């Protein structure tokens, strides 16, 4: 079962598409994160989803939210895909142990060997403030991201 909103997001360290380590806790106290799990690089639905995010990267930048993709692909596959699609955000390799971070977030599909399409918006304190998951084979709509970012902005305004 996927982690619920208003719970602490599990910390992790994974290599990005360049082999550089990225830790979720490095953003704590600095910037919110939209953690976007996707099944596999180079697949049609995933390419469509991430290209839509690439084309709308400004909504995350305007909200001071770091967009980060995560899949079970290797860092080499993710780098080739990111370069081919000109993604301007990090892609993290949850390659080994296979899908460990997706499992920690409750979105790994054992029978398929990869993560479900799941998004977690994590605030500066490391708490999941919004999340959504689509059915297998179904792309997440951009409106769901906008709604999640709006919820985060409302929460920030209330606590200011």
UniProtKB/TrEMBL annotation:
SUPFAM superfamilies: Thioredoxin-like. Residues 3-154 form the Thioredoxin domain. Pfam families: AhpC-TSA (PF00578). The keyword Calcium does not apply. Keywords: Antioxidant, Oxidoreductase, Peroxidase, Redox-active center. The keyword Oxidoreductase applies. InterPro entries: AhpC/TSA, Thioredoxin-like_sf, Thioredoxin_domain, Tpx_Peroxidase_subfamily. This is Peroxiredoxin. The lineage of its organism: Bacteria, Bacillati, Actinomycetota, Actinomycetes, Micrococcales.
